[in-house]
Design a protein that fits this description.
heterodimer; A: 469 residues; alpha/beta; TIM Barrel; B: 419 residues; 8-stranded mixed β-sheet
Chain lengths: 469, 419
């Protein structure tokens, strides 16, 4: 068996080598490298925008810090200064924000916008290739319908970035994609440039329910066997490519193995380039999944839903795994029965990485309200999680989970200018995201009905001359 | 105090206060109600299961449990007007769900009250979070008529208050499917059912002696509809599309029956007509997406627009969490207020309005003489960040311990020990 180090170092060489070497003369000229890092690359371009300064706002930085009153300056898409009485660049747009609150753009690590769009009709149901327990070959981005009317509602709720995942019927559901919530005719126009890919895995009830009568897995032990078989195949695949690369160095006519999209995704996980986002409810199953990741030398980024994460908080701390949870969903299936409303608070208290995700078209529009529920549940056990801390669950921590902490998730100098001005404390039910910038460009403005522009679907759908509200 | 001790103390406190017939004086508390009848901050005396007095500086007594309500708010318990409480324990576990039947002989006559489980973990959980009453509605499966809804209080005893609260029909996209693929078929089926029920009602004797034609509906189903025709029960119709709402209003008028509308996501488009017909509506004000072709007009200010037209509102929610987290109806209410609905109207939609529609007028009113079903809040009850500090049902303070808090406390102590 290859060790983790040898796979990683080898594949790193492979990827970098292929970027510069000319395509070998072979029958299948497309199959010369393990994967194509640039396939379906983002076409999003940061728009030109005037420098902007937000004045005298209550600022939640996103990393636990806050300012009672501060200014924020951004230009050329980046935050350039945060502090008191800042000097604005020439020609800067001034936003008076006395009494208002400012946060980083909210990041939802678990959304199905675009892949399960509205109307929720069969014609639109593109979120889960539920035809086999392992569909690691599918990419959710290829299902994204950019006209989903949910996108504009999400940015009106302060969401600037969302990870769109495939569904959870399969052991391996396919790749996720990170999108910026900007209007676009094509998916690639929303795709977050160079964001790491992710792979959705699912534990527990869903795979065994869906495949129990279709050849399996039909049990949790069947689930585990299915993951292990797949990882063994992925190791073999990585080996085959490694051998090919060795041969090719000596012999230019060496024949590359045939590309296999499914194994390519799994090999991408083993080499550390694809992040694991693992739907998993029960504590004991999370522990098994951690053991599995050790057996095959890969890293789990985040357990999603993680209803019982509070039961294994120390284990999650030890293994540096984030938990993306709902505030209070429960009881829709057996593995969601042991919900506690303080799940995220208990994780925070234990020192684990807690994230509030939506997985939901309604809650994505008001994620701070979900965090507010956790704050209430925390108070019941005498844990005080103030706004500057709770905002981490919606910004810095999700940024870390999707491998973009260097670009988004906090209002620090050098970060992307994904900024939200709220009418009041964002954790209040009465608060509204009034202004939302992505990369310094204003994308949502409650005083301007054209921002965001409405989806094609909404035009004249009820009254010919009106937009759907 | 260790947590286990604290839990014991709460239990003991609950028992003691029950033994004392629960005489409780809450001092200096801000009242949250559907009216401005009382000044903002008052004392409230709970005695003999009722709100005995509301006033400034009420006389104290040694026999009272005194609670300082400073900085806190007091409301009645809230009502969620569309839930599966007591008939759904775990959604995906069929043996724990009783909300619908595939038996075509039992549709309108499916009384959810017969299936309600007072030991459901959902009851203490939602009660501990401020929900004291709910409508439990069946879901359509084998026929257009889903069954007969019940009104419950979230108690382990005397749970069902009204076992025949309304006959439930699902029209719109669901009814269309059940009726065979066209909403026109659903309306035809609805008309036929009422014609037959009237015929049955007028000719019960000859029907029972076998001298009347057969009806597609079973005798029990006809009997349930007869109670709607006689005015004993309202017809509760789930419907969203504006034109369908109009047709249902017209149908109810022709049939001369009491009507309640539910769903009503496009209600704002026909708000005046609903108001003119004096038909109350059950809405979830948090809905705003075109999730189907029946709800293209869904919008966040639906509740506000309906109210402006004069429609009586009852709330449910939040979204599909209206059963396990039925208490979150107050989050939906908060979002309605954030989108233009007056605050007191939102409170009415969870208290006095459902009480009026379902005949509970003395149970959810914040006034002297009403049953003391009360909730003490740490702040504004419409804020998700607000916690519940105490709950009284008919004057008795309820334990806030639930299966969920037991789990929480078990693992909190483990996490603490590890640190």
């Amino acid at each position: 068996m290859l060790t983790r180090f040898s796979i990683v170092s080898f594949l790193l060489v492979l990827f970098s080598a292929c970027a510069t070497s000319p395509i070998a003369d072979s029958e299948d000229s497309s199959a010369d490298e393990l994967g194509d890092a640039d396939a379906f690359a983002s076409t999003y371009v940061v728009p030109d925008s005037a420098p902007t300064v937000i004045r005298n706002a209550r600022v939640l930085v996103g990393n636990g810090e806050s300012y009672t009153t501060a200014d924020i300056v951004f230009s050329d898409g980046k935050i350039t200064a945060v502090g008191e009485s800042l000097v604005a660049p020439d020609g800067a747009i001034e936003i008076a924000a006395e009494g208002k609150w400012v946060t980083p753009g909210i990041i939802d690590v678990h959304s199905h916008m675009g892949v399960y769009p509205n109307p929720a009709i069969a014609s639109h149901s593109d979120g889960n290739e539920a035809v086999a327990p392992n569909t690691a070959e599918v990419w959710s981005e290829h299902s994204v319908w950019p006209q989903d009317p949910n996108f504009e509602k999400a940015i009106e709720g302060g969401v600037t970035t969302a990870q769109i995942l495939p569904g959870s019927a399969n052991l391996f559901g396919g790749r996720g994609v990170v999108l910026k919530i900007v209007p676009s005719i094509t998916m690639r126009g929303m795709k977050f440039p160079n964001a790491p890919h992710s792979l959705k895995m699912a534990c527990g009830e869903n795979p065994k329910r869906v495949y129990g009568s279709k050849g399996g897995p039909g049990t949790r032990m069947g689930n585990m066997a299915g993951y292990r078989k797949a990882w063994i195949d992925a190791q073999q695949y990585a080996n085959d490519w490694a051998e090919y690369e060795t041969k090719k160095a000596k012999d230019a006519s060496a024949k590359a193995p045939k590309r296999d999209l499914r194994l390519e995704t799994l090999a991408g996980v083993l080499n550390g380039e694809i992040l694991i986002h693992n739907h998993c409810y029960r504590a004991d199953e999370m522990a098994n999944m951690i053991e599995l990741s050790k057996e095959f030398d890969y890293k789990i980024s985040t357990f999603h839903h993680a209803v019982e994460a509070y039961k294994v908080a120390p284990l999650l701390v030890e293994n540096e795994i984030c938990s993306a949870v709902w505030a209070d969903w429960w009881g829709f299936k057996q593995e969601a029965f042991d919900m506690v409303r303080s799940n995220a608070a208990l994780l925070e208290y234990a020192g684990a990485c807690a994230i509030i995700h939506s997985d939901d078209e309604t809650q994505i529009q008001r994620l701070p309200q979900e965090a507010a529920k956790v704050m209430a549940a925390a108070a019941e056990i005498d844990l005080d999680y103030p706004p500057e801390l709770a905002i981490k669950w919606l910004t810095a921590n999700p940024a870390k989970a999707i491998g973009l902490a260097d670009q988004i998730g906090t209002l620090e100098v050098g970060k992307n200018a994904d900024v939200v001005v709220w009418s009041a404390n964002p954790f209040s039910v009465y608060s509204k995201a009034e202004l939302v910038w992505i990369d310094g460009a204003l994308r949502s403005d409650r005083s301007n009905p054209q921002l965001p522009p409405t989806s094609d679907f909404n035009l004249g759908i009820i009254e010919p001359e009106e937009d759907r509200p | 105090m260790r947590l286990s001790q604290l839990i014991k103390a709460v239990f003991v406190f609950a028992l003691v206060s029950a033994n004392l017939q629960a005489q409780t004086l809450i001092k200096n508390v801000a009242l949250v109600s559907d009216s401005g009848d009382y000044p903002a901050v008052q004392d409230v005396l709970i005695k003999d299961g009722k709100i005995h007095a509301i006033g400034e500086a009420l006389q104290e007594s040694d026999s009272y449990t005194i609670i300082d309500g400073s900085g806190k708010r007091l409301s009645t318990g809230f009502f969620n007007a569309n839930t599966d409480l007591g008939i759904r324990e775990v959604g995906a576990v069929e043996t724990s769900v009783d909300s619908s039947s595939a038996n075509a002989r039992i549709t309108a006559s499916l009384r959810v009250a017969d299936a309600i489980n007072p030991s459901s973990t959902l009851l203490p959980y939602n009660r501990s979070l401020g929900l004291t009453h709910a409508l439990v509605t069946p879901s359509a499966k084998a026929g257009l008529f889903a069954g007969t809804a019940a009104v419950i209080r979230l108690n382990t005893t005397g749970t069902v208050i009204d076992e025949a609260a309304a006959v439930v029909v699902e029209l719109g996209s669901k009814g269309k499917l059940v009726a065979g693929g066209s909403r026109a078929a659903a309306f035809a089926q609805l008309r036929e059912a009422f014609e037959d029920a009237r015929d049955y009602r007028a000719n019960r004797g000859s029907y029972n002696s076998g001298n009347r034609r057969d009806y597609p509906l079973s005798r029990q189903d006809l009997q349930a509809l007869a109670s709607v025709i006689s005015g004993q029960m309202p017809l509760l119709v789930f419907v969203d599309r504006a034109i369908d709402i109009e047709r249902v209003l017209d149908f109810a008028k022709r049939q001369d029956i009491r009507l309640i509308l539910a769903g009503v996501e496009e209600g704002w488009r026909v708000a005046e007509k609903i108001a003119d017909a004096k038909v109350p509506v059950i809405v979830d004000p948090i809905n705003n997406l075109p999730s189907s072709y029946d709800t293209l007009g869904s919008r966040l200010d639906n509740a506000s627009l309906l109210h402006e037209a004069g429609v009586t509102l009852l709330f449910t929610g939040m979204s599909w969490h209206n059963t396990h987290n039925a208490y979150l109806v107050r989050q939906s209410a908060g979002n309605a207020v954030a989108n233009g609905l007056p605050y007191q109207v939102a409170i009415a939609a969870m208290t006095t309005n459902p009480a009026k529609v379902f005949g509970l007028s003395d149970s959810l009113a914040l006034k002297v003489g009403a049953k003391a079903n009360l909730v003490l809040w740490g702040g504004d009850p419409l804020e998700p960040s607000t916690r519940v500090e105490a709950v009284w049902m008919a004057g008795e303070q309820q334990s806030l311990v639930t299966r969920s808090t037991r789990l929480r406390d078990r693992y909190l102590s483990i996490i603490k020990a590890a640190q």
